[in-house]
């Protein structure tokens, strides 16, 4: 990252009513938008490697697409001015195929057989589809009313005119954008360098896969959900494993992560626990704030910047509970990383559904309930929770197809009330 970044204190001073001990979810995103700076480094990649990448520059169309007026149908090209409310009989002068211009001249009362995509012969502006005409040798007859002047003709540049902006910097390239770039004859494109994100799990009770189970210990699941969430975003992941709660190991992991990554994600050790060196090490190595967010799950979270070897990495210290990790990632880390990746930040489109059950909800915090949205027989969308909402319970997350987002000021939800759902489809 290039320009001198603001300190957390400076950012906090910009935000009215900033209280690290009682932050609303919206305020967290305001803070992160000021903390995280877009990557400015770019690279040129081939179109096949550009899927999911973020455009570094606007793309201006070097050519017009389509490059000539052409037919949208297989049929006969004619002069629209000759159409009347009576049957029209024309004499066919030949066939225009896609890929080369038809060379002859066409006079009044004449037409040209034409294929879809073929250049419109000079003077002709309308195409009647073949299924509407009667052909008898060279004679073509069409009934009145089947076409209007200009029908079934695609105009030069109707998709894009040469010199027009085709794609905007910050757009994430999807399949349609790859096709559009190719339609402009562009074999390569400038994209933002892929963001590098390092992550590790902390805690003495956390077992790595392959270790035998032992009393009081649990297998690390957070590294795998974080891996999945990051990979879905198209970032380059740096997996630093499970780091035991020892200062020297934590210091080495943080320094390694800060030297190699644009952002660091950890899980665990950010709450009030005593046997924990994670917070102390974050504090020692960087400019870090410890928050209590008015949300459920995902209350405690550390945020800041670690500097190492002249570069700076953003730190997201997520709470240890497995569902809190996923929810804080989706609510905060994902938009922050989109910004870091140089992408336009896309707030997820929330789906409105009727609640199929009553939900208890305290005003004054945002709650994310794991749920499913299904279409009922009467066509309405109904959201229901997927069971145990404990912040350590992943099975109800697996069963969910979205998060029911109960907003900060909202109170209890009654059956039939409208709720908003962040669907996972397309997000995770
Ligand atoms: N007195 C208070 N206690 C707690 C508070 C609080 O505000 N006051 N907040 C609770 C909330 S909410 C959460 S969330 C947790 C977060 O605590 P930590 O971030 O310090 O996380 P840990 O204590 O290390 O772990 C919490 C929980 O998650 C399990 N865990 C941790 N890492 C992993 C992993 N990689 N894979 C699977 N499971 C993991 C860990 O075993 C604990 O059960 O604090 C509450 N307490
Ligand atoms: O962050 Mo905690 O999940 O609310 O248990």
Automatic annotation (TrEMBL):
Xref: SUPFAM superfamilies: MoeA C-terminal domain-like, MoeA N-terminal region -like, Molybdenum cofactor biosynthesis proteins
Keyword terms: Magnesium, Metal-binding, Molybdenum, Molybdenum cofactor biosynthesis, Transferase
InterPro entries per UniProt: MoaB/Mog-like_dom_sf, MoaB/Mog_dom, MoeA-like, MoeA_C_domain_IV, MoeA_C_domain_IV_sf, MoeA_linker/N, MoeA_linker/N_sf
Known catalytic reactions: adenylyl-molybdopterin + molybdate = Mo-molybdopterin + AMP + H(+)
Keyword presence, Transferase: yes
GO cellular component: cytosol
Cofactor: Mg(2+)
Pathway named in the protein's UniProt entry: Cofactor biosynthesis; molybdopterin biosynthesis
Coiled coil stretches, renumbered: none
GO biological process, one term: Mo-molybdopterin cofactor biosynthetic process
Domain MoaB/Mog per the UniProt entry, residue ranges: 198-339
EC number in record: 2.10.1.1
Protein's UniProt keywords contain Metal-binding: yes
UniProt GO molecular function: metal ion binding; molybdopterin molybdotransferase activity
Family membership: Belongs to the MoeA family.
Physiological role: Catalyzes the insertion of molybdate into adenylated molybdopterin with the concomitant release of AMP.
This protein's name: Molybdopterin molybdenumtransferase
Organism annotation: Hydrogenophaga crocea
């Amino acid at each position: 990252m290039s320009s001198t970044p603001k300190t957390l204190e400076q950012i906090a001073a910009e935000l009215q009513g900033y209280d690290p001990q009682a932050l609303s979810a919206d305020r967290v995103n305001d803070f992160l938008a000021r903390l995280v700076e877009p990557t400015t480094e770019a690279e040129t990649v081939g179109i096949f490697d550009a899927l999911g990448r973020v455009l570094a520059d606007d793309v201006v169309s070097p050519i017009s697409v389509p490059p000539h007026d052409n037919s949208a149908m297989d049929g006969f090209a004619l002069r629209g001015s000759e159409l009347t409310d009576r049957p029209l009989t024309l004499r066919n002068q030949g066939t225009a195929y896609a890929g080369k211009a038809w060379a002859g001249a066409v006079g009044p009362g004449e037409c040209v057989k034409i294929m879809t995509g073929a250049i419109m012969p000079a003077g002709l502006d309308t195409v009647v589809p073949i299924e509407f005409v009667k052909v008898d040798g060279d004679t073509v007859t069409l009934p009145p009313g089947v076409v209007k002047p200009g029908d079934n003709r695609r105009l030069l540049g109707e998709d894009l005119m040469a010199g027009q902006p085709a794609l905007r910097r910050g757009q994430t390239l999807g399949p349609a954008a790859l096709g559009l770039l190719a339609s402009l004859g562009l074999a390569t494109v400038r994209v933002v360098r892929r963001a590098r994100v390092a992550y590790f799990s902390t805690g003495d009770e956390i077992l790595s896969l392959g270790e035998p189970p032992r009393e009081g210990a649990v297998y690390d699941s957070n590294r795998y959900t974080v891996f999945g969430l990051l990979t879905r975003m198209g970032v380059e992941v740096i997996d630093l494993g499970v780091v035991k709660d020892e200062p020297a190991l934590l210091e080495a992991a943080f320094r390694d992560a800060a030297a190699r990554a644009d952002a660091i994600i950890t899980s665990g050790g950010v709450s009030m626990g005593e046997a924990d060196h994670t917070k102390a090490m974050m504090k020692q190595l960087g400019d870090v704030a410890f928050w209590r967010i008015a949300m459920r799950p995902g209350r405690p979270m550390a945020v800041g910047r670690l500097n190492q070897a002249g570069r700076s990495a953003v730190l997201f210290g997520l709470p240890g509970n497995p569902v809190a990790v996923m929810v804080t990632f989706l609510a905060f880390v994902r938009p922050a990383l989109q910004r870091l990746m140089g992408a336009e930040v896309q707030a997820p489109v929330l789906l409105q559904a009727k609640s199929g059950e009553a939900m208890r909800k305290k005003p004054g915090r945002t709650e994310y309930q794991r749920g499913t949205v299904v279409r009922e027989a009467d066509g309405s969308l109904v959201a229901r929770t997927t069971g145990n909402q404990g912040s350590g319970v992943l099975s109800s997350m697996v069963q969910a197809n979205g998060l029911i987002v109960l907003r900060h000021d909202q109170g209890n939800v009654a059956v039939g009330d409208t709720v908003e759902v962040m669907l996972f489809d397309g997000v995770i």
